[in-house]
Design goal:
Strand content: 15-25%
Distance between the termini: 30 Å
Order of helices and strands: HEHHEHEHEEEHHEH
Largest sheet: 7 strands, mixed
Number of strands: 7
């Protein structure tokens, strides 16, 4: 938000507070991160996207806008978020996705993909994710609900998609690391499941790198505020909406 606030000062001539809709690990990326800020009454709102893009650095782009009520806080109005963790299948591919997709040090073959596809659903539902939280983190509750997990792939990349009502610090990257360890044969699936059921990690893993993680979509209480992003490297199929809004 710092770069956006700098740009807004240049546009409006005075400081403006920017409110985000997600807290993401340092080094991670965002395909679509909705933000909110107050616009002066004299400013023509239809000019906000080109005005921002004239001042923002090249790796940040404004895409579109919605008008909301004054005081709207996207972090509080969001009811779910979708993340994608991107993995390069082969070393030869990793060169083109440096700091964009994680190469694991070995090529992913058919058996790895099949194992990931088979075990990915064990995380779905409501669980205590203490075992997958970064050590030393503090939070009011470690209970989270994962609405859906999926696996998308093409010839070069694998994307693990995760949609939940919230995430603990480091949760996604530790979940991904655990799944990959099972797929490689370094971790028994029973130990992963036991850790999920008890909230106690009974295995040792190295947290997956942050640069493979992408905030992909934020789901708001008001469906009309939802954006429809397009993932640049993979075709991502999101079928979570009925689950997210089922109890609302």
């Amino acid at each position: 938000s710092g770069e956006i606030e700098k740009s807004l000062i240049k546009i409006f001539g005075s400081p403006v507070k920017v409110y985000g809709s997600a807290r993401t690990d340092a080094g991670a990326h965002a395909i679509c991160h909705p933000i909110a800020f107050e616009v002066p009454e004299h400013f023509q709102i239809q000019k906000i996207v080109p005005a921002l893009n004239a001042w923002l650095p090249e790796d940040i782009r404004a895409i579109e806008y919605r008008v909301v009520e004054s005081g709207f806080l996207p972090l509080k109005e969001a009811i779910a978020r979708t993340y994608v963790y991107l993995i390069a299948k082969k070393r030869s591919v990793s060169l083109f996705f440096k700091n964009r997709a994680v190469y694991l040090g070995y090529d992913l073959d058919k058996s790895h993909i099949e194992t990931l596809s088979r075990i990915i659903s064990v995380f779905e539902g409501t669980h205590d994710f203490s075992a997958f939280m970064k050590a030393g983190s503090s939070t009011r509750t470690t209970i989270r609900t994962i609405f859906r997990m999926g696996l998308e792939e093409n010839d070069n990349l694998v994307g693990i998609t995760i949609t939940a009502n919230g995430f603990l610090y480091g949760q996604i990257r530790n979940m991904v690391a655990a799944m990959l360890a099972v797929a490689k044969g370094d971790l028994e699936l029973s130990k992963l499941i036991e850790s999920l059921e008890t909230g106690k990690r009974i295995f040792q893993i190295q947290t997956a790198p942050a640069y493979g993680l992408y905030l992909y979509k934020v789901w708001f209480r008001d469906k009309n505020l939802n954006f429809s992003p397009s993932f640049p490297f993979l075709s991502i199929d999101l079928a979570e909406e009925k689950d997210i809004y089922a109890t609302r």
